[in-house]
Each structure stands twice: as structure tokens, then as C-alpha cells.
Amino acid sequence: MLLQELYLENNQIEEVSEICFNHTKNINVIVLKHNKLEEHRIAPLAWINHENLESIDLSYNKLYHVPSYLPKSLLHLILIGNQIERIPGYVFGHMKPGLEYLYLSFNKLTDDGIDPVSFFGAYRSLREMFLDHNELKSVPFGINEMRKLRFLRLNNNKIRTVPPERICRIHIDDDDVHENSEEEENEESRLEHVHLENNYINTRQLSPHAFPCIRSYCSVVLKPQKRK
Predict the structure, then answer these.
(1) How confident is the model over 102-142, as pLDDT tens digits?
(2) Three-class secondary structure of residue 106 per DSSP
(3) SS3 for 102?
(4) Strand 151-153 and strand 101-103: pairing?
């Protein structure tokens, strides 16, 4: 019988070497939550070439950055409850068909820790992204380009405002001002749920155009907010 799922949670694991998974080429799920892993102790060739590895759970370890050299085939990445301060640029750029579920709740992400190219390679694939319970002061750039995103959590941060163009793409009719391919123009946002509660947002000052791509405003959770 071929090993397809491996659960190694609640141990004292500190390292993932290049040979750890040499004989598990058909593995689909690896769970390493509640260990003592740091990103520099994960070997570059540990799992990047595993063609069937679709889900990795590294929650509650000692990670400070989203790890590099993740599997090309990865669809689910769970990094809840680490010390992550940064999503390096192009860290998802090599993945095909692309990461679909990214969970980074309960970390230490700041605005400086998310680059304009942090989500490169995942713009056309991400369906769920959880960035709640971090240290963000603004809505990260690039969310309005995530055409398949359905569920977004930004609650319990330090966000004070939501600019109109930050979550939903603004369409400009003047062809001389902005040119898009026909495919891009016809591609509507699939965003269904947005959580922004427990930030520092003055909801009365929000632009009426902050969420034009979301069909139902009851799908945008804005209350309660923290007091300044």
C-alpha cells in the first residue's frame, strides 16, 4: 500500500532534510503542526519536486517567513499560529496549477512583510485566504487581482480604512485610459465573504464603492470594530 497521508503533529521535530520523503513520492498530505520547525531547517529539495503533494500543515511551529521551495503541486498551505512576519516575493511563483488555500491566521504579518509580488503565481488560483489576527494596518495590495478568491479574512488586525480599489477592481470605461484584454474585462470577481471586523475602521467613512464586486453587502462583516 502506498503512503498517501502522513501525520507527525505534536512532536519535537526541528528539521526536514532532503532525504526525509525520498520514498514517499505518492504522498498527498503532510501534517507537521505543533513541532519546532524553522524555515531555514527545511531543506530546499525536501519536497519541491513531489508531484502529488497537495496539502502541507506547518501550523504552530517556529516559522518567521513563509517557507521557500514549497511543492510545485501544492494546493493547501496551512501556517496558522507561527511567528510569520513576511511573505517573500515570488514564494508561490513556481506552483502549478497554483495555490488555492492559504491560511496565515495568528501570525505577526505587517504591511512591510507583504511585497507587491508576494502573491505572484497565486493571483489566478487562490480561493481562500486567511490573514486574520496579524499586525496589518492596511489591506494588502494585490487582492483585487485575485479573480477566483471567494473567502477573505482580514479581521483582528489594525486596519483603519479600505480604499475603493484595494479589494475590488475598478473598471474604467475609457479605452484610452485603461486597456484590458477581453478575457480580463469579462472576468468577474467571485468574492463572496469578507471579514474585516475587530479592526480600527470607521465604517461611516467607508466609500460606497469599497466593495462593488461583492453581490451582497451582508457578506461583508464590518462589526464590531475596536475603539481607537
Answers:
(1) 999 999 999 999 998 999 999 999 999 999 999 999 999 99
(2) coil
(3) strand
(4) unpaired
